[in-house]
Amino acid sequence: MSDRPDLAQLHAELRQGRATAVLSAVEALESDGPLSDEALRLKIAALEALGYDGEALEAALSLRDDRLQIIQRLLARMQDVVVTDELEAVLCDLLQTEEFFHPNVYEVLVDRLAEKLRAQGLSALHRLAADRYLCLALAKLDLWWPDIERALTALRSRILEDCASAGETTASAIALIHGMAVQCHRTEYAWYVSANEAAWLDRVEQQCRGQPAPPDHEAKWPLLLMYRSPTDLHKAGLVGGNPVDGQDGALARFISATLDEDAREARLAEDFASQALRGDETSMRVAGMYEENPYPRWTSGLPILNPGGRPLEEFMQLVESPAWQRQPTRRVQSILVAGCGTGLQPLSLALALPAARVLAIDITCRSLAYARMMAERYRVANVEFKRRDILELPSSNEQFDMVDCVGVIHHMRDPAAGLRALLTCLRPGGLLRLGVYSRSGRDAVVRFRARQAQSRPQPATLRAIRHGILEAGEQGSYADLLRFRDFYSLSGFRDLLLHEQECQFTIPELRALLAAHGLTFLRLALQAGMMESLHDRAGPGTSPFDLESWHQAELRVPSLFAGMYIVFARFDGEV
């Protein structure tokens, strides 16, 4: 007799809340042989309902269909996950197939990588190269933890010296070299290069520039990819050469894809350069900085595409609710993203509101080029990119239902003038999302900038400055900087600490800025733990919709807004 009718009945019982009975019945079926996927899913659902997430995860490992999706969902709700060999194989599949991970899943992936780095000891490089998880994680994950960077910097140096000195063959370590090359490219080669490494690199480069090697001479050029981009090496004639025995094609694909993307970005940047920019002296200096270091160089999938989460949840609650509007029936149909950078924000908004028209403007050609490439990658059709200075907006005569400007006006010579220019494009009753730096949240940045000469540093200088902060560690004067994600990429580090122009605000100053420009504060965008800090630190009776409550909370927790204040406000039409 088929067990399908029994399963249908069990599904009904589970919906009625009888998870214990359902689990007992499924386990009875299991005693007769392996469960079908349908029965396994039922068992997993019953275990989840009873709070046995670890057992549910173990059962999910036996699934044949939907295994990755279900395991990701389970990992997202679990704590203290024990990664078995079988689960590690699944994590490898996730690294190869998924673009975005729930934060809890990301933590599992990073913890497993850190565990492997701690355990590597003096393992031969070819053994590390055979570790599929290690190599895949290096090529996939953005890593922003000081201990991990220290371990990887030491490992990179070891790979270079062992392979360049013929202690190991490049071919035997090629998978590890590939993972490390991609990871270093993701950081924009931000890691420190010691004098010893520089000497070995010089030897490898000289070898690659020499006469064609005999057939039995192993190619060493892949080692250079851990320190310089494929495009730079290609221009110098250093990429290519002899093929590497044992190469599985991943390194070749990485080189080819990077060369194609960089060439495409350069062509698009030329197109945007044809759009004349009329900005003040500060705008031109800031544009020059971002031409050298487009920011952020995001490479992971758009969080909005993650089916298991809503990174724009608070925004969507406001947009989908008429509470903030004077005209409750009106929906957001047009959005201006001012200072769009490399496109992360406008693309997220365009995907969240597919019926809306999104105009994204920026002053930097390379940033706009990167943004357009990402729009093409994700097939986002309802966004347009233009090169334009915010101060030019009053002459455009365009009106939008929403203006989004996060992390921009604090880089202008006169932030208030920038805000006034933005409001000329926002219809009365429209929604503004504005992000500006918190003075207390960026205390370490402010102290650093007061000491550091403000000049246009070269990459080697940026690496050296980073290295000093990293080596000082938690006992250093700028230990707080290690908690910023931007610290862990070259463009991010420059944007964080060595920006051409920056100012910060306090909450009273922000409140005065809003009031002076006819803006009614609606709420702050909150990160995890902020609401708890509000109630714990500001006292009973505080309101998340009251800026004074947040001011009192920040006085007690100065790092509460370490990123920036991001406020939602309604424009009442009078400045």
Structure description:
- The protein has 575 residues and is of the alpha/beta class.
- It has 4 domains: 4-105, Serine Threonine Protein Phosphatase 5, Tetratricopeptide repeat (Alpha Horseshoe), CATH 1.25.40; 106-259, no CATH class; 313-320 and 332-439 and 503-571, Vaccinia Virus protein VP39 (Rossmann fold, 3-Layer(aba) Sandwich); 443-497, no CATH class.
- Helix content is 50%, strand content 8%.
- The chain contains 25 helices and 7 strands.
- Strands 3-2-1-4-5-7-6 form a 7-stranded mixed sheet, with helices on both faces.
- α2 (19-30) runs antiparallel to α3, α6 (85-97) runs parallel beside α9 and α10 (146-164) crosses α12 (195-209).
- The relative contact order is 0.07.
Task: Give the rounded overall mean pLDDT.
Answer: 87
Q: Per CATH, which architecture of the largest domain?
A: 3-Layer(aba) Sandwich
- As for the CATH topology of the largest domain, it is Rossmann fold
Number of helices: 25
Rg over CA atoms, rounded to whole Å, is 27 Å
List the helices and strands and how they pair.
Layout: H1 4-15, H2 19-30, H3 37-49, H4 53-60, H5 67-76, H6 85-97, H7 103-119, H8 125-129, H9 132-140, H10 146-164, H11 174-186, H12 195-209, H13 230-235, H14 250-273, H15 281-292, H16 313-320, E1 334-338, H17 344-352, E2 357-362, H18 365-377, E3 383-387, E4 400-406, H19 415-423, E5 426-436, H20 443-451, H21 459-472, H22 490-497, H23 507-516, E6 519-524, H24 530-538, H25 547-556, E7 565-571
Parallel strand pairs: 1-2, 1-4, 2-3, 4-5
Antiparallel strand pairs: 5-7, 6-7
